[in-house]
Amino acid sequence: MVLWPAVSLIGFLVLTGLVILLGTHSTARYEQERQAASTGRPQRARTVAGESIGATAIL
């Protein structure tokens, strides 16, 4: 009887933690890029996952 509410609560907490984790990572990357732009330092090259193996996009 208590199983489904417990599973729902655990799932909610896991998904909330995932959203927080992704948000902090994105915010940290944004802050790094903003600081690099304001100090004039060149940004490191960012590659798309497909570029590293030579894949081409079909549009």
TrEMBL record:
Transmembrane segments: 6-24
Keywords: Membrane, Transmembrane, Transmembrane helix
Protein name: Uncharacterized protein
Organism encoding this protein: Goekera deserti
